[in-house]
Amino acid sequence: MGHISAGGPDNGRERDAKAARSGREETKEERADRQWTELLQELRVAQTGVQILFGFLLAVVFQPRFAELSTTDRNIYVVTVMLGSATAAALIGPVSYHRLLTGRRMKPQTVTWASHLTKLGLGLLFCTMCSVLLLIMRVALHNALALWLVGAMALWFMACWFLFPLWAIARGPKRGNGSRSPGDGDSGQAG
Fold it and tell me: DSSP state, 24?
């Protein structure tokens, strides 16, 4: 009952104090595994949407009405397809990182790199969505209202994807008070 661990009587208290500060009692590798699983769940949502959107974009060029598009609309289409391609590459890239680095004892670094690539992919997805909306609104409306609608939707995307999370970070607990682990949150850092 009164067993003292080999590390001495304070070893347990030190571990408990560390866990209380970090909010979790996990090793660097365990944290990386958890963060990788969380990142994969996030990527599944984003990748599905990107793949559907990209498939739609690829099919547009083969529609009979495509030939009727103005030069400006065709240019917007080309930019949109390129953005969609870059988005797909960035959001599928973490899978390649993981596959090529598996077994090399680099999970924390893989999580960090994949997190950065995912953030880049989300920024590209924002641009792709705005570009797709611009193309669709120009074809549908043929007037300046298209720009206003796309601008309003771009602000909404920006608020939902970036401003609300940043607002939550600003209003949430600070890292210095022991309520969050350095590897938790949106940073994707594994340590």
Answer: S
- What letter does residue 187 receive in the DSSP assignment? G
Q: Specify burial of residue 121 (Cβ count, 10 A radius: 0-12, 13-18, 19+).
A: buried
CB 154 within 8 A of CB 130: yes
Q: What is the pLDDT of residues 36-87, one digit of tens each?
A: 889 988 898 888 889 899 999 999 999 999 999 999 999 999 999 999 999 9
3-state class of 158 per DSSP?
helix
Residue 148: CB atoms within 10 Å: 12
DSSP state of 8: -
d(CA 57, CA 81): 6
Phi-psi region of 26 (alpha: psi -120 to 50; beta: other; left: phi over 0): beta
DSSP assignments along 120-134, one per residue: HHHHHHHHHHHHHHH
Q: Contact, 189 vs 112, CB < 8 A?
A: yes
Backbone φ, ψ for residue 190 (5° rounding): -100, 10
Q: How many residues does the chain have?
A: 191
Helices (H) and strands (E) in the chain, counts: 6, 0
* CA 26 from centroid of its chain's CA atoms: 24
Answer whether 0.85 is exceeded by the pTM.
Answer: no
Contact 104, 163 (CB under 8 A): no
